Each structure stands twice: as C-alpha cells, then as structure tokens.
Amino acid sequence: MTHFLEPEEVDYPLTTKEGWAAFVAETIAPPVVLPPAALQRLPESERAEYDQAREDYHSQLVIVSTPTIRHVAATGRKRILLNRHQHSARRGLIVSGPAGTGKTTAITQLGKNYEQLGRRRGEIQPKSLPVVYVTVPPAATPKMLAIEFARFIGLPLPSRYSQVEVTNKVCDLLCTLGCRLVLIDELHNLDIGTRVGAEASDQIKYLSERIPATFVLAGVDVEGTGLFAGRRGGQIASRYSLIPTSPFRHTTADQHGAWQSLVATLEESLRLHAHRPGTLLKLSSYLHDRTSGMIGSLSHLVREAALDAILDGSERITKASLERVDLDESAEQQNLPRARRRRTRNEKRTA
Question: Tens of pLDDT along 265-315?
C-alpha cells in the first residue's frame, strides 16, 4: 500500500476560508539587519537562513497606504455601518480602474482591517465568518458564482445540486456564520452582453439580497462592460458607489509629492546592507517613467531589484540594477526605446 505524506503547511489560496484566515493573521515583521562584524561571524548555515528571511520579507514588502486604499477603507467602513440594520437595498461599492492600480489590494485590505478590528473589539464572534473573498471565474454562470462561495466556505456539494440548491445552501450558511462583508474580485469577467453574463450579474444582486452583508466589487474598467446599462444596470447603479482607480500622476507639485512619498515609504522598508538611503527618492522621476505611475509595477520593480541585490551580493539598489529588471509588458510598452533595448538584450541572451 502506498502512503502519501501530508505537507506540514498547506498554502491555501485567498479564495478559501483557510487562506483568508492566514491573510488576516499575517503580520510582516521587518528582519533585523545585522552589523558587518556580526554578519561575518555567522556560520554558513545561519547566513543562509538570515538571507532567506530577508528574501521572504522583500518578496512581500509593505502595503503602502495609498489614496485609493485609504478611500476604500473609509468608505467601506461607513457602508458596513450604514447597512448594519438594513433588511434590503443595502448599499455597496465598486472599485474600478486599469490593471495594476491597486484594486485588489484595496478591497482585501478593507476586509482584513475590518475583521481584525472587529475581533479585537469583540464585535465578531470567534467561530464566525465575517468576510468572504471570491473571484469571478471566466464566462461565469450563476451556478459557478454560487460554487465559488461554497468553495470559500469549504462546503461540500454533490454535483447533482441545481443552481437554486447551491445558492440556498450558501446563503443559509453565510447567514448562520455571521457574514458581514462580501468581496467579489475580477468583476470584468462578467460578460453582461451575453445572456449567461447578465444572469450572473443578477445572481450577485440576488446574493446581496439574501446575505445581510455589504458587497464590495472590483474589476478592470467595469464601467465599459455595460454593468450600469439597461434595467439591470440601473438597479446596480442605484445601490453601488463607484470608486475609480488610476495611475499616479506626475505633473503638479502635489502629484510629485505624493509619488515621492510612496517611493520613500518603499525605500524605508528595504533591508539591504549597502543600500544608500535616498537613492530611490532621487530616482523618483525615473521610477515613474519606468512604471507609468502604476503602483503594481513599482512594487514589482523595487521588490525584484531588492531580491537581486541579496542574491548577487551587491546589497544595494541602483539605477543600473533597476534597468535589469523586466517589468510587465504593459509597463514596458510605455517606453518603446527601452522595450526595443530589452528585446535586443534578451535576443543576445538566447543566441
């Protein structure tokens, strides 16, 4: 007989109650940077562990409190309070904007902060499930959406169950578990122009009526998907406030200041031995040019450069090391001369 060993630690996705609980409980503690003398005395095995801890830290880095995160947090908290005693027509939020502008980070931080605060205050019972986070699958049907909720809860469902049966099981259990905030991401996967997509949109509305929770939705440029058009769209528009997200601008003095504050916060979070403080701040205009003001691209750029600095032993980030980082194609195509240089460099590597 073959025996399979259970892994010591399962990495559950955020779209499960186990993954969400780990996310809520997670704290990112910056590792202590040892002075040179102490570093030299470390045995090889301990040095490897020390570097591994810094690599893990820089792979996550800090969550910067951007204007979008603050706006979603403040507005979301007020919506939850307003909906506390509403029996129907509860008000929600839709966060919409280009990819890489911090939508997912904003709504998940809202959920994390709400649950942490509620548990500290004793407003949330220990065995309750106050927050649900799901993503809309491609070409989603109403039944598929209900199954995503069931998967988050860990609710086993026979395949023979109909859409109505799945939906009823999910709604009944979430009411019992005290769900108060529902986060639905990747809303742009709903194709409202099709019958199935329109019915899936109706399913979200139905779930929001059955579950006494505040619904917060997020997606890429959802205004252009037809979500607010027609009779269905009118109902959504009458209950949801839209919070748009966008790249950081870099024209006015205030915009320069906001971007520099973001860069400075990221730089202060670095745990590298030879990095010169202020280097990234001096490169703030270059960083905006490289990333087109996209916070997702900026985070990627700084984190990968920090990892390179540890792996190659340089222990610092410079403009040259930032240039060696390949960003997402959307960011790279904003600077066509650099995109051409990158393509030439890659071709030489593979020649």
Answer: 999 999 999 999 999 999 999 999 999 999 999 999 999 999 999 999 999
What mean pLDDT is predicted for residues 207-215? Answer: 94
DSSP secondary structure, 42-104, as one string = S-HHHHHHHHHHHHHHHHH------HHHHHHHHHHHHHHHHTTT-SSS--EEEEEESTTSSHH
Residues paired with 243 in a beta bridge: 95
| SS3 state at 134 | strand
How long, in residues, is the chain? 351
Query: Would you give the DSSP letter of residue 187?
Result: G
67-244 has which CATH code? 3.40.50.300
Residue 243 is classified by DSSP as E
Residue 280 near residue 244 (C-beta atoms within 8 A):
no
Residue 282's contacts (CB-CB under 8 Å, 6 or more residues apart) are none
Q: What is the pTM of this model?
A: 0.88
